[in-house]
């Protein structure tokens, strides 16, 4: 009986742009890429590229303009605080060719938050400056908002704040078919299973098969990750893979996700 | 007395290209960027950009060709193992427009390492394929080498191996003036010190002043990082900064690096 071809997957893509000299100097380890990649994946949005760039206006403008044309969604983190090196909002405005000024709702929220007008300093007011035409992204932690400009979402760099901003806006995203995965773990090293794995990949060209070596309790352990949008196909491929490894004399088990 | 202008700093730049679907899916947290950024910085090589890209040949070729023209050095990690999804070596060959075949010295090393010819499988032999004209980068851990092609260095993705490859080749790098840093920690929040900080940045335009908020023992703590190539200038700026913060009623101390 001929197999019924599956409908082509609806693919929605994203790019993450991490803005900050502190990541490039090695001073700070980025924590936003893995969080956003994991969460976007759950929503059916595939991260196809990430960039880490410095706090340099020309670089931010060029990068944002390149990637917003190339991908469905862009997420930037970093550079929207109150200090002189926080130039992301101005750079996004420049990238879109629009002006930037204080957003009344952002001013109102921050003014309420700080209470005493003396605490709502000019530097803090800078954080209420939003590119014209952008909509706010709520910041449940420290109030100063992020924003959405076209398909570009701009978040703070501090991971807890970036995460809370993402949670507050994720309903705006329209994802494609979610990418599902199954993982088979084996004790056979990559160099032994590679050929069989390559053959399996050829037969299942709608699935992306990745091989990730590691160690468990001092012994080689390879995680074989099958990713795709059709779970029946993933299940069939995983079963075949386990059988093949058993035939080669290896151990194989599918991990419960 | 007029200040003697310092000689312009010799700047050497780099880009890190992380190749791997597992980072983009969020499955694996990258650990190579912060290691390489920190180590390169010590050698006077400034990381100006990082990219995380998928295991797709066209993307690897385009990215490598763009960044090798733009930066003094390029470091790639990932995709040089024995499985079908390891396509970095072939992609680098394509980017440079050269062929690729087994490198006799790589074959000899791996053949010695595996001993039994039955263990030196065709898949493992793939790891001895090196773009024509490249020189080997030693792999003290698992033998299969990385390589240098022009200004592009290609390392394995597994952090311990990437790190050992970097250690074995770093004497080949010619750095510029090392970037030195001094850090002042204060209890004043960014929104309070931002204006004074911006004014200091204007007076010290040869120094890059970054402001990184955080928490220590539940209280606001901001690290102000001064970076530049001239330590006398950094010391002067740090002293001025500490005085300014004291005048504002805040606490400030320079951290011992």
From TrEMBL, chains A, B:
CDD domains per the record? cinA
Q: Which InterPro entries match?
A: CinA (IPR050101), FLAD1_M (IPR056596), MoaB/Mog-like_dom_sf (IPR036425), MoaB/Mog_dom (IPR001453)
Pfam families cross-referenced by the UniProt entry: FLAD1_M, MoCF_biosynth
Q: Which Gene3D superfamilies match?
A: MoaB/Mog-like domain
The record, for SMART domains, names: MoCF_biosynth (SM00852)
> What SUPFAM superfamilies does this protein map onto?
Molybdenum cofactor biosynthesis proteins (SSF53218)
Using the record's annotation, list all stretches that form the MoaB/Mog domain: 15-176
Q: What is this protein called?
A: Molybdenum cofactor synthesis domain-containing protein
Q: Which organism is it from?
A: Enhydrobacter aerosaccus
């Amino acid at each position: 009986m001929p197999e019924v071809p599956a409908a082509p997957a609806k693919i929605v893509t994203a790019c993450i742009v991490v803005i900050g000299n502190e990541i490039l100097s090695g001073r700070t380890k980025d924590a936003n890429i893995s969080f956003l990649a994991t969460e976007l994946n759950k929503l059916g949005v595939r991260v196809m590229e990430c960039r880490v760039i410095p706090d340099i206006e020309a670089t931010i403008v060029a990068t944002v303009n390149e990637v917003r044309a190339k991908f469905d969604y862009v997420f930037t983190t970093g550079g929207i605080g109150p200090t002189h090196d926080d130039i992301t909002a101005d750079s996004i405005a420049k990238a879109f060719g629009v002006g930037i000024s204080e957003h009344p709702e952002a001013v109102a929220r921050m003014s309420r938050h700080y209470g005493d007008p003396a605490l709502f300093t000019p530097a803090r007011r800078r954080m209420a400056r939003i590119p014209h035409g952008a909509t706010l992204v709520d910041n449940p932690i420290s109030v100063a908002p992020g924003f959405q400009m076209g398909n570009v979402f701009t978040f703070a760099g501090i991971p807890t704040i970036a995460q809370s901003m993402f949670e507050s806006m994720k309903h705006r995203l329209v994802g494609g078919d979610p990418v599902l995965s199954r993982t088979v773990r084996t004790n056979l090293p990559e160099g032994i299973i590679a050929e069989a794995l390559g053959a399996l990949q050829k037969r299942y060209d709608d699935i992306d098969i990745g091989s990730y070596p590691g160690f468990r309790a001092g012994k080689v352990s390879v995680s074989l990750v099958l990713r795709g949008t059709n779970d029946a196909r993933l299940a069939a491929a995983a079963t075949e893979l386990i059988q093949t490894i058993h035939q080669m004399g290896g151990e194989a088990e599918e991990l419960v996700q």
